[in-house]
Design goal:
Number of helices: 17
Radius of gyration: 22 Å
Largest sheet: none
Strand content: under 5%
Helix content: 55-70%
Number of strands: 0
Shape: globular
Distance between the termini: 46 Å
Order of helices and strands: HHHHHHHHHHHHHHHHH
């Protein structure tokens, strides 16, 4: 965001050009969600190149887990900051998302141009049901890790009910879960401290050579002001072009707000995005939301980049005074900008305070409550996607607000059910990767379309 000030040590063992090349190579391998992305960084930075020690890597990862936003991209930003200061953080975090941004922009354009052709419809007929199994896998994995106490199970069930039955807004669920987790933490005795993680090979760069800054008020204010300007000025320019009530302005403001409440990962916030983008703004249909998620699953980078697809379709269909293609591309880039700039800001702003946050029991308890609620949030997302994937999509997109009708029971899609079951077997039984499963299901859908089965 800005130049670094204050006493610090600059690493000399890793040339900046070598770091840039490494971050770019990492960005091409960031498939499979945050767990796979963090594993790629662990293997490359800790095990192979040994630029950072295991203990310091885990320390950085724990801090990023506390932040809203894509934790893997923030971890890349943080490690880049440790290695080369602010410029290192900006390059590492930027390259982490760049390939996915370009890929999803191209795929969004292809969908708009050719989305009604039989071949494209057949591909999505295979991809969309596979997403259901992927979401179910996310629910099972997170539940197995975090729901280790009855009160946390109750939090997950309450979050699901609040969203599915009472329509409580996603930010409200996050805030309530954080408060509940904090309250539960105060009632429980303090847990013993975990032993230091010192596994893995010794790094070639010792901790005292890594970048460091004192958390001064002057630096904090400078980073905050520059970050807010970088975040807000492009949005103000687009608002001047598109009008205060234009689609691009609405999207910029909505996703700016979403960026600061994305606790719990992309699956959690996508329930809120889907609710607002479909029912409130009418930017796309429920079925298209599932297709966008399928596209995001097949591209490198954070899954939250599905917001690109949402913005592209919404602006193309309601471009205002702009050319539809210009509006769509501009909206896609703007939404990407306002989604990821806060991630950089949170890391660069809070990195000097990292040691103070480490081991903060109240903060950890609040995060535990939020993580438990995320299980219910993702389950709600899975139900939403299942309804609009396994049953005929009776919604339609008009020039005005999106009209959504619940599908009838007799409109079940047999092909979608079969592919969803195949995907579940591949993921849960055979332990296939997400990318391999998506490729197989896309091939099944394409084959079904070629032999004349209904895929639309």
């Amino acid at each position: 965001m800005t130049g670094d000030a204050g006493p610090r040590h600059e690493p000399t063992l890793v040339p900046f050009r070598s770091a840039v090349r490494t971050w770019f190579l990492i960005s091409l391998q960031t498939f499979g969600g945050p767990a796979g992305q963090i594993a790629v960084m662990q293997r490359t930075l800790v095990d192979e190149k040994r630029w950072i020690g295991q203990r310091r890597f885990l320390h950085a990862m724990n801090y990023c887990m506390l932040l809203p936003g894509p934790e893997a991209q923030q971890l890349a930003t943080y490690v880049g900051w440790l290695l080369h200061g602010t410029r290192g953080g900006l390059v590492a975090g930027g390259l982490f998302v760049l390939p996915g941004v370009l890929a999803l922009l191209a795929l969004s354009a292809i969908y708009v141009a050719f989305g009604t052709t039989t071949a494209v419809l057949a591909l999505f007929a295979g991809l969309a049901p596979a997403v259901l199994a992927i979401v179910a896998q996310a629910v099972v994995r997170i539940a197995g890790k975090v729901l280790d106490r009855p009160e946390l199970v109750a939090l997950a069930v309450a979050a699901f009910g609040a969203l599915a039955l009472f329509g409580v807004p996603f930010p409200g669920v996050v805030a309530a879960a954080g408060l509940a987790g904090w309250a539960l933490g105060r009632r429980r005795p303090a847990a013993p401290e975990e032993p230091d993680a010192d596994a893995g090979p010794q790094p070639v760069i010792s901790d005292d050579v890594l970048h460091a800054e004192a958390p001064t008020a002057r630096r904090t204010l400078r980073v905050l002001l520059v970050g807010l300007l970088v975040w807000g000025v492009p949005l103000a320019i687009v608002a001047a072009l598109a009008g205060a009530h234009g689609t691009l302005t609405e999207q910029g403001l909505f996703f700016s707000g979403t960026a600061v409440v994305t606790f719990g990962g992309a699956y959690a916030v996508l329930a809120y995005v889907a609710q607002q983008a479909v029912a409130t703004y009418g930017w796309l249909s429920p079925g298209e939301m599932v297709r966008g998620l399928a596209l995001a699953e097949t591209t490198p980078g954070p899954l939250i980049m599905v917001v690109q697809f949402v913005a592209f379709l919404g602006a193309y269909r309601a471009p205002g005074d702009l050319d539809p293609w210009v509006a769509a591309v501009l909206a896609s880039l703007l939404v990407t900008w306002v989604t990821f700039v806060p991630s950089f800001l949170f890391v660069l702003l809070g990195a000097p305070y990292m040691e103070r946050l480490r081991g903060n029991r109240s903060l950890s308890s609040a995060l535990t409550g939020i993580t438990a609620a995320v299980v219910g949030v993702i389950a709600n997302l899975g139900i939403y996607f299942a309804v609009h994937t396994l049953f005929s999509d009776s919604s339609r997109v008009n020039a005005g607000p999106l009209h959504v009708e619940l599908p009838e029971v007799d409109s079940l899609r047999p092909l979608a059910v079969v592919i969803a079951l195949v995907a579940a077997v591949l993921l849960f039984r055979l332990k296939w990767s997400v990318l391999r499963t998506l490729g197989t299901c896309a091939a099944l859908g394409l084959t079904a379309g070629l032999v004349g089965l209904p895929v639309g």
